[in-house]
Amino acid sequence: MSGLFAVIGDPIDHSLSPNIHSAAFRELNLGCSYIAYRIPKGQLKSGIEGLKKIQVSGFNVTVPHKVEMVKHADKLDESCSLIGAVNTVENKDGVLKGYNTDMDGFLDPFKKKGIPIKDLKVLLLGAGGAARAIVAGFAKEKAGEITIANRTVQKAEELSEFSKENGLDATHVGVAEVGDSAKNYDIVVNATSVGLKNERSPISLDSLRGDAIVYDIVYMPMNTDFIKRAKERGARIIFGYEMLLGQAVRAFEIWHDVKAPYDAMKKALLGGGV
Ligand code: ATR
Fold first, then answer.
1. Residue numbers annotated as active site
2. Domains and their CATH numbers in the chain
3. 183 contacts 207 by C-beta, under 8 angstroms
4. What does the pLDDT look like over 65-85, one tens digit per residue?
5. Ligand 1 within 6 A of 194 CB?
6. Whose C-alpha lies nearest to ligand 1, atom 16?
7. CB of 129 shorter than 6 A to ligand 1
8. pTM score
């Protein structure tokens, strides 16, 4: 194994994955390195050939290549055939195996905090690639009911169908129609990109119950308006960085066959004080 790893995408300059994985290498004294490698949309095939030539042992895949990568993998783990997207690739002697660690990454904070999901009522905002991995996670953990709210209602409907195929009791709604219904849910998840640019929360959380769990997958900024409003209601918060770490830990363990040093990886992300 060459010990070289990468994350591919475009844009890629601001990816936090090199920091997280490099911290883990240092902690475990592994002689490995991890680089950010820009591959523009439409150039995935030649980009992957380049990675194979320099004998990369594994790579993460991010926007815009997660769905396209399915076609370029020689083998697919069950996780990515279900979700229809790849975010982690293992290269064994030129044979590429695709995985999706987003679902396990999403579930990881619930496991760490000992929060069972079974039978809970979920409101999921968003119906893109990330939301699909999240639905697969809720299906795996047998959530009670799920409402999918999205700006484009047709996409909410499609994800609701996917939820039903995976055994969930699902309904869908336009995100503008959610109104004051936050009070009806045990878990509210923001899986839209709203918040990345400091926008207002996509829905009102004024009626949120104090015992609700609120999870934002946006990790930069950490305290989005959605999170701030949830905190005001006294809800239990799960931050986007917790999912980011969860998926990185799982990818690390696929590649290295050793337990990932979670605390060192977390420190690389949040700095010494947290
Ligand atoms: P990802 O892979 O991160 O899920 P994506 O597939 O592009 O990215 O999905 C982005 C999600 O954010 C979608 O649910 C999108 O809603 P649409 O399906 O209507 O596009 C949602 N989103 C992005 N900008 C939004 C906005 N300003 N208001 C509401 N939803 C928004």
1. 66
2. 2-100+245-270 (3.40.50.10860), 103-238 (3.40.50.720)
3. yes
4. 999 999 999 999 999 888 999
5. yes
6. 151
7. yes
8. 0.95
